[in-house]
């Protein structure tokens, strides 16, 4: 599925780092930054996660909650959160169902080899559950500015 600005986001239920389940509909009435990233503890993903962490208070002031999504396990997410003191939840999507819903499980290419992986995309969702913005060319160190501009 490919989602566009103005589309209603599909609801989903998923497990977060502590093993509990959350639903996207739990965030109805709130603004949400939903960022998809390839892997916990890798250089670019860590830079992106820490940029969002460092600006988390700013997001909160503007009424945003932040949620990260990757195919990593809940255990990996918990270690990532603990290591970098991340103040937001990370969703575990090992079966790629959420990636499929948002169109972020894509064919990629590195060194001439094709493989399937996560597109580093961020969806900015309004209080009504509609997509306000999609950041597709994420710059890890400037990600907050990309989201809020």
What does this structure look like?
The chain is of the alpha+beta class and 149 residues long. The chain has a single domain (29-148), classed as Glutaredoxin (3-Layer(aba) Sandwich). Helices cover 28% and strands 30% of the residues. The relative contact order is 0.25. The two termini are 26 Å apart. The protein contains five helices and nine strands, in the order E-E-E-H-H-E-H-E-H-E-E-E-E-H. The strands form two sheets. It has a seven-stranded mixed beta sheet. A two-stranded antiparallel ribbon has the order 6-7.
Tell me the layout of helices and strands.
Elements: E1 13-16, E2 21-23, E3 31-36, H1 43-54, H2 56-61, E4 64-70, H3 74-84, E5 89-92, H4 97-102, E6 105-110, E7 113-118, E8 122-125, E9 131-135, H5 143-148
- The average pLDDT value, as a whole number, equals 94
For the record, the CATH class is: Alpha Beta
The secondary structure category is: alpha+beta
Number of helices: 5
CATH superfamily: Glutaredoxin
- CATH fold category name: Glutaredoxin
Q: State the domain count.
A: 1
Main sheet summary: 7 strands, mixed
Residues in β-strands, percent: 25-35%
Number of strands: 9
Percent helix, as a range, is 25-40%
Q: Poorly predicted ranges (pLDDT <50, ≥5 residues)?
A: none
| Mass-distribution shape | globular
Order of helices and strands: EEEHHEHEHEEEEH
Instruction: State the end-to-end CA separation.
Output: 26 Å
């Amino acid at each position: 599925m490919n989602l566009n600005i103005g589309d209603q986001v599909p609801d989903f239920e998923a497990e977060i780092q502590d093993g509990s389940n959350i639903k996207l509909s739990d965030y109805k009435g709130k603004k949400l930054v939903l960022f998809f990233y390839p892997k916990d503890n890798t250089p670019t993903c860590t830079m992106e996660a820490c940029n969002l962490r460092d600006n988390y208070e700013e997001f909160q002031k503007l009424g945003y909650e932040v949620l990260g999504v990757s195919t990593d396990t809940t255990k990996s997410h918990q270690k990532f959160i603990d290591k970098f003191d991340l103040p937001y939840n990370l969703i575990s999507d090992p079966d790629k169902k959420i990636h499929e819903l948002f169109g972020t499980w894509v064919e990629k290419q590195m060194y001439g080899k094709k493989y399937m992986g996560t597109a580093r995309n961020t969806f900015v969702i309004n209080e009504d559950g509609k997509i306000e913005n999609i950041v597709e060319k994420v710059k890890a160190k400037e990600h907050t500015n990309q989201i809020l501009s």
